[in-house]
């Protein structure tokens, strides 16, 4: 099964345990991931896009009205750059949790596949086996 397909199944699954793990891990590493995305990933992406800073991306509906240094009417804008930033953060956190859960599931699968000691056969089967072995020795 492909990694992308497994990730999609993981992200779309409604398992409460997976959700709890995601919330805990996401909360614990949220600041680290945000810094990684903001400080490490986004600057090169911004350079590739012509020096665009995602947090500055917006659609202005109405410019701010200024009276000297005082703002009379604030700017009305749709700031979608921060939304893009949050989506990157989410995808990185979700992928990290997916890889963690995948590793745990792989470990549990190996644990389950370990062969258990075979059960001792019942007494009547053991007796019949001994009789068979004795008959084979005689012949």
Automatic annotation (TrEMBL):
Assembly, in brief, is: Homopentamer.
Instruction: Report the family membership.
Output: Belongs to the MscL family.
Sequence intervals crossing the membrane: 16-37, 83-101
Q: Which GO terms describe its molecular function?
A: mechanosensitive monoatomic ion channel activity
Write out the function statement from the record.
Channel that opens in response to stretch forces in the membrane lipid bilayer. May participate in the regulation of osmotic pressure changes within the cell.
Q: Which GO terms describe its cellular component?
A: plasma membrane
Keywords from UniProt, A to Z, are: Cell inner membrane, Cell membrane, Ion channel, Ion transport, Membrane, Transmembrane, Transmembrane helix, Transport
Q: Out of the domains of life, which is the source?
A: Bacteria
In its UniProt entry, what is this protein called? Large-conductance mechanosensitive channel
This protein's record includes keyword Cell inner membrane: yes
- Claim: Transmembrane is one of the keywords in the record: yes
Note one Pfam family from the annotation. Answer: MscL
